[in-house]
Structure formats: structure tokens, C-alpha cells
Design a protein that fits this description.
This protein is mainly beta. The chain contains 4 helices and 18 strands.
Length: 289
């Protein structure tokens, strides 16, 4: 059995998998976790609300972001100016601890980051300004280009504009979440635009020209004679530019609603009745209704 390994600490078999994919083992190349000296700073997030048309055609926005930057007093070292660091007494300056682990598969050496120095390998007197973190909160203005065709819920990543890394490690990124305001008349479905228009029953019968609000501004649309309620008229290439391919645009779909008056004036009623008589005379065949 395993009696000859009494010097090792027992472990749950499931911990083996966590160790393989997490901290690593000295017996397999000594793969250790990322130390504080190399771990990038945390990503910072920002929620940006933009107008409907700004999402369609793109825009530039200035963001005011609160994030962690390098401490100016200790120049990001975390150490009080005028003092010197010393090797960590727990890890002897390596930044790592090696632990012997006994498992049903055999004995292994597990490498973990030293929890006393957090992988730095040194202990020091902390900076009074940042408390030893080497970072402090600061507000920065960032110019962001929002691309044409972006949609609600999209995310933009600005490389290197997140929180600073500790002790000289690279910074994280800024993740911008886009929220698009609704438009009073227009609706968006991917790269297509939808809107509704109300016309009178006379215009539906005879046809007409109407002005339609589009993302490009007001545009005249021809209503063909005999247009039925619920008809959809297409305005080609009046939609949203495709993200990353601005020369490709969607369409604008205009949904026609025909207004039927509940009450008619006397003159209008006479004209409609005359029209009804004309329609009755125009019917052909053996039956009349």
C-alpha cells in the first residue's frame, strides 16, 4: 500500500484535478500560479448610454473613468520611500511554497503562491499613501470611438485602460457596456429598421406621397394606389450599416396602417354613397347584392 509515504499529507482524490489545472505540481515541471509580479491588473467596467442614431452611425464619446493607477509616492512599488525590502521569511524570497501531497495516484509536490508576500518574494514597510498596494484610485478621461452599427448590449474593450497591475505588472482593460436609447418612431431589428405610418382610406385607394422619418432624416415615400391595410413598403438601404462593413446597409420597412373614420360629414357621406352605387353598377354576372 501507501504506508511508506507517511511523511505526506493525505488529499481528497477530487483535489488532484483541481491541482492539475490550478496550482500545478513540482513533479511536472514545477508549474506555479501567477505571482503578483506578473498578474495583470483587474479589468474595469463602464456602462455607456448612447442615442439611437449614435448607435446607427457611430460617434465619439469622452468617458470619465475611476480606476486604480500606480501610486505616485512609492512609484508603484508599494514600499515606503527611504526603506529597503528584505526576503520573505516564509518562502525565502522565492515567492512560492512547495507542499508535499499524498494521493491514491502517488506522491506529488504542489507549488502555490506564498500567502505572506503574495508571490513578491519580499517583505517591506508599506507606503503610507497606498497601504502597500502600489496603486491608488484616480479619475481619467478617455476618448472612445463607438463604431457604426453597434447594438444594444454590445461590449467594447479598450486595451490597457483598466486598473494598473501591482508592482509594475501590466494593466487590465476597460470593458464598456453599450446601452442604446429607444427612438420615438423607429425600431431596430439587427441591421433593419421598422416604423409605422398612418394614411387615410382615400390615400390608400388613390395613392399618395408621404414623408417618412428615417435614420437619414425625412424621406418621401410613394404610397401605391390600392394599398391594403397591413402592407409593408420597403425602403432599400435606408437601414443600419453592418458592424465592421459600413458599405453594407439594411433596409427600412414601413408598415402601413389605414385609418377608417368612425363618423363622416354629410358631404363626405354622400360621396361615399355615390361610390358605393358606382361599385354596384360595375358588378357583372347574374347575381347582384
Amino acid at each position: 500500500g501507501m504506508g511508506g509515504m507517511g511523511g505526506f499529507q493525505s488529499a481528497n482524490p477530487m483535489d488532484i484535478f483541481e491541482s492539475f489545472f490550478g496550482g500545478g505540481f513540482g513533479g511536472f515541471g514545477g508549474m506555479g500560479g501567477q505571482s503578483e509580479r506578473t498578474r495583470p491588473g483587474e479589468n474595469e467596467t463602464y456602462e455607456l448610454q448612447i442615442d439611437f442614431l449614435d448607435a446607427v452611425f457611430g460617434c465619439k464619446k469622452e468617458l470619465e473613468v475611476m480606476r486604480l493607477t500606480g501610486c505616485k509616492t512609492c512609484t508603484s512599488s508599494g514600499m515606503k520611500p527611504g526603506t529597503k525590502p528584505s526576503n520573505c521569511s516564509m518562502c525565502q524570497g522565492t515567492g512560492q511554497l512547495i507542499q508535499a501531497v499524498r494521493t491514491p495516484l502517488g506522491a506529488f509536490q504542489q507549488v502555490t503562491t506564498c500567502n505572506r508576500c503574495e508571490g513578491a518574494g519580499q517583505s517591506f514597510t508599506p507606503c503610507d499613501r497606498c497601504g502597500g498596494d502600489g496603486r491608488e484610485r484616480e479619475t481619467k478621461r478617455i476618448q472612445l470611438t463607438v463604431p457604426a452599427g453597434i447594438d444594444n448590449g454590445a461590449r467594447l474593450r479598450v486595451k490597457g485602460e483598466g486598473n494598473a497591475g501591482r508592482r509594475g505588472a501590466p494593466p487590465g482593460d476597460l470593458i464598456v457596456f453599450i446601452r442604446v436609447k429607444d427612438h420615438a418612431e423607429l425600431r431596430r431589428d439587427g441591421i433593419d429598421i421598422h416604423s409605422d405610418i398612418d394614411i387615410s382610406y382615400v390615400d390608400a385607394i388613390l395613392g399618395s406621397l408621404v414623408k417618412v422619418t428615417t435614420v437619414d432624416g425625412p424621406v418621401e415615400l410613394k404610397i401605391p394606389p390600392g394599398t391594403q391595410p397591413g402592407t409593408t413598403l420597403l425602403m432599400a438601404k435606408r437601414g443600419v450599416p453592418r458592424l465592421g462593413a459600413n458599405n453594407v446597409r439594411g433596409n427600412h420597412n414601413v408598415h402601413v396602417r389605414v385609418s377608417i373614420p368612425k363618423q363622416l360629414g354629410s358631404d363626405e357621406r354622400k360621396l361615399v354613397e355615390q361610390l358605393k352605387e358606382l361599385q354596384a353598377k360595375a358588378r357583372v354576372g347574374p347575381f347582384r347584392f
